[in-house]
Amino acid sequence: MKFSEQWLREWVSPQLDVQGLADQITMAGLEVDAIEPAAALFSGVVVGEVVSKEPHPNADKLSLCQVEDGSGEPAQVVCGAPNVAAGQKVPFARVGAVLPGDFKINKAKLRGVESRGMICSASELGMAEETSSGILELPASAPVGEDFRTWIGLDDHCIEVDLTPNRGDCLSIKGLAREVGVLNRLPVEGPRIEPVPAAHDDAFAVRVDDAERCPRYIGRLIKGVDVTAETPLWMVERLRRSGVRSIDAVVDVTNYVMLELGQPLHAFDRANLQGTVIVRLAREGEQLVLLDGQTVALRDDTLVIADERGPLAIAGVMGGEHSGVSAATRDIFLESAFFSPLAVAGQARTYGLHTDASHRFERGVDPRLTGEAVERATRLLVDITGGEPGPLVESCSEAHLPDEREVRLRAARLEQALGKRLPAEEVADILERLGMAATSDSQGWHTRVPSWRFDLAIEEDLVEEVARIHGYNRLPVRRPRARLGLRADHEARVPLSRLRRQMVARGYQEAVTYSFVAPELQAALLPDAVSPRLANPISSDLSVMRASLFPGLVRALEYNLNRQQNRIRLFEAGLIFRGELDALEQTPMLGALACGPREPEGWAGGRERVDFFDLKGDLESLIGLGGEPETWRFEPAEHPALHPGQSARILHRGEAVGWIGALHPGVRAQLGLRSDALLFEVRQDALTHGRIATFRPLSRYPEVRRDLAFLVDESLPVQALLDTLRAQAGEWLAECRLFDVYQGKGVPEGRKSVALGLTWQHPSRTLNDEEINQLVDAIVAESQQHLGAELRG
């Protein structure tokens, strides 16, 4: 909400400068974002009158004007504006004046003719952002010779307030003035609004078919308006200082009343209405061309204003182009309505719109303001555009208007929340000044919430109101008294931060991608995945919740490859979403992606590309942090996003917790990726699960080592051989190390040689050869029997 300081001070004017006023508003919970001057600095500009205009003797597009500036002697001025004319009142910069940008006005000769001063446009005075095509015309009542800056009140400030969604009552000068009046204990005096008597009996019929969404609707037919009438400069200026552009007299008046009182209004061209104005829900297949030229297909849950031919406007959002006011309009139908916040909430966004009207209706507009706003707009329209107003036509369903709310405030609860006892008289005064009818008893106060405060519903709301009006800075600052018990530290748990640091230490960079992905990308990687589809996505390529971290990482890979990055290491920790909304599973995962050379480019680095076992080693480094590597397994399995021969399911304690593998060539071709990549994702709860390290005394006795080379089937996983070996090696096995895998000369086709180093050590004595030989024989026999392994000679 942006407003003029001068406009606000017409309603209530505390003894504060602009910064003090802004600080006070901010401390009351209405944060001030910016304070800007209403116009750039300039001096030496007065109200002038063009006495005469003649063609320039040496230029076709220039005029020679005589301007009366109140000094008693007309000044000769050369002017190039196309709209200058004799008899006009204009802003005139005398010789010596300084305009914005430190532009000084001097005597000059233009095409051989002397010019003493300059007739100014709005942009030249810093009153318009865009370059003006002509001079700024002033009202005929402007006093010649008066300082222009003082006369129009440009020593003003534009204050921008960032309101929270619950304070829709402050989206107007009236609402802000109410707040300032309460804070300073001052009366609020706005313009006196009286009913405008009807000049004729013609009325336009109104019918409300959905009283629940539109409990009150008021319309008035105004005949004979002059839409081309010029909007008064004072109104144009107030709109400008509020960030609203002047369009035409009718639109300017409706915008002005909305800014002043907070009630959005809309004017229809009577000539384009047929039959009855109807407030109803849209019907399937109906379309509407909006004022911005956009054609929208209306949904059947959208409240519309219609006539007997079809929709005229989306209620509370935007009017239609067909029924809008134009230069040819002579009669207008002015509407003012109260729409339920729930009826308007979200409607604008679903059609890609956001308007001042929808912004207010979504937050709640005072239902008792409807008639007052019509009367105010009618008076302004009659004064500016002429016209003859008809009688008010109203449809009202009292049963559907918001109920009067009564909220109880207990003195004990207030003292507990504020940490301070406030005098009962002060609390009652604050509640009364906030517009609440408060009655007190021995326990506290019963209050009746005013119609404009949609945010007050429970006792805590009243506590907040009392606190902010009393002043947050006046409340005591105390440390809370609490006996806080220390929570047990899960020593066995590996913190996620440690997993992150480990990935960074391994050369990875953390990626943070959207939780939404393109449906086509997810379908390519996870064709069978089920995840929620967004009803109102940011964009079409972010319209489904991710069922895996793979889509986001692959999209990041594509982004980097397109920017000539050939070595990529990324990881991400985040949620994935699987299932429909009513049975949605949200699982924290850790994923990683590797692509390109194994080592960074350098004279000592090789050119080998990263492979499956490089990524598996990075994952095993994370697994090792938990201290339970023996509880993890990798088993060959197929995943639609991974290469069939280079993919594995990750198991923890026998439960599937993730996947690892190379990106499927078909998927890579479908996505247009020119480089292969490897990925993994694992459930975070499995990675963070560990065990507490325990001390075991070091043995003083020597180790015994035996190296065994087995010939096994080439398809046999080495893990199966290791499991068999550990089962037969006894309790004193200290280490088992795989140090060679060989296929080639001397090894039968279809077989491979696996060499293992086994180390035994007893904690209290030296192991003898007989004991070790028995263990080795048991290992060889078990491997032969169950795995078909042969001891290589």
TrEMBL record:
<dbReference type="GO" id="GO:0004826">
    <property type="term" value="F:phenylalanine-tRNA ligase activity"/>
</dbReference>
<dbReference type="Pfam" id="PF03147">
    <property type="entry name" value="FDX-ACB"/>
</dbReference>
<dbReference type="InterPro" id="IPR005147">
    <property type="entry name" value="tRNA_synthase_B5-dom"/>
</dbReference>
<feature type="binding site">
    <location>
        <position position="455"/>
    </location>
    <ligand>
        <name>Mg(2+)</name>
    </ligand>
</feature>
<dbReference type="Pfam" id="PF03483">
    <property type="entry name" value="B3_4"/>
</dbReference>
<dbReference type="Pfam" id="PF01588">
    <property type="entry name" value="tRNA_bind"/>
</dbReference>
<dbReference type="InterPro" id="IPR045060">
    <property type="entry name" value="Phe-tRNA-ligase_IIc_bsu"/>
</dbReference>
<keyword id="KW-0030">Aminoacyl-tRNA synthetase</keyword>
<feature type="binding site">
    <location>
        <position position="465"/>
    </location>
    <ligand>
        <name>Mg(2+)</name>
    </ligand>
</feature>
<keyword id="KW-0067">ATP-binding</keyword>
<feature type="domain" description="FDX-ACB">
    <location>
        <begin position="699"/>
        <end position="792"/>
    </location>
</feature>
<dbReference type="InterPro" id="IPR012340">
    <property type="entry name" value="NA-bd_OB-fold"/>
</dbReference>
<feature type="binding site">
    <location>
        <position position="461"/>
    </location>
    <ligand>
        <name>Mg(2+)</name>
    </ligand>
</feature>
<keyword id="KW-0436">Ligase</keyword>
<dbReference type="InterPro" id="IPR002547">
    <property type="entry name" value="tRNA-bd_dom"/>
</dbReference>
<keyword id="KW-0694">RNA-binding</keyword>
<dbReference type="InterPro" id="IPR036690">
    <property type="entry name" value="Fdx_antiC-bd_sf"/>
</dbReference>
<dbReference type="InterPro" id="IPR009061">
    <property type="entry name" value="DNA-bd_dom_put_sf"/>
</dbReference>
<feature type="domain" description="TRNA-binding">
    <location>
        <begin position="39"/>
        <end position="149"/>
    </location>
</feature>
<feature type="binding site">
    <location>
        <position position="464"/>
    </location>
    <ligand>
        <name>Mg(2+)</name>
    </ligand>
</feature>
<comment type="subunit">
    <text>Tetramer of two alpha and two beta subunits.</text>
</comment>
<dbReference type="Pfam" id="PF03484">
    <property type="entry name" value="B5"/>
</dbReference>
<keyword id="KW-0460">Magnesium</keyword>
<dbReference type="InterPro" id="IPR004532">
    <property type="entry name" value="Phe-tRNA-ligase_IIc_bsu_bact"/>
</dbReference>
<dbReference type="InterPro" id="IPR005146">
    <property type="entry name" value="B3/B4_tRNA-bd"/>
</dbReference>
<dbReference type="GO" id="GO:0000287">
    <property type="term" value="F:magnesium ion binding"/>
</dbReference>
<dbReference type="GO" id="GO:0006432">
    <property type="term" value="P:phenylalanyl-tRNA aminoacylation"/>
</dbReference>
<dbReference type="GO" id="GO:0000049">
    <property type="term" value="F:tRNA binding"/>
</dbReference>
<keyword id="KW-0648">Protein biosynthesis</keyword>
<dbReference type="InterPro" id="IPR005121">
    <property type="entry name" value="Fdx_antiC-bd"/>
</dbReference>
<protein>
    <recommendedName>
        <fullName>Phenylalanine--tRNA ligase beta subunit</fullName>
        <ecNumber>6.1.1.20</ecNumber>
    </recommendedName>
</protein>
<feature type="domain" description="B5">
    <location>
        <begin position="402"/>
        <end position="477"/>
    </location>
</feature>
<dbReference type="Pfam" id="PF17759">
    <property type="entry name" value="tRNA_synthFbeta"/>
</dbReference>
<dbReference type="InterPro" id="IPR033714">
    <property type="entry name" value="tRNA_bind_bactPheRS"/>
</dbReference>
<dbReference type="GO" id="GO:0005524">
    <property type="term" value="F:ATP binding"/>
</dbReference>
<dbReference type="InterPro" id="IPR045864">
    <property type="entry name" value="aa-tRNA-synth_II/BPL/LPL"/>
</dbReference>
<keyword id="KW-0820">tRNA-binding</keyword>
<dbReference type="InterPro" id="IPR041616">
    <property type="entry name" value="PheRS_beta_core"/>
</dbReference>
<keyword id="KW-0547">Nucleotide-binding</keyword>
<dbReference type="InterPro" id="IPR020825">
    <property type="entry name" value="Phe-tRNA_synthase-like_B3/B4"/>
</dbReference>
<keyword id="KW-0479">Metal-binding</keyword>
<keyword id="KW-0963">Cytoplasm</keyword>
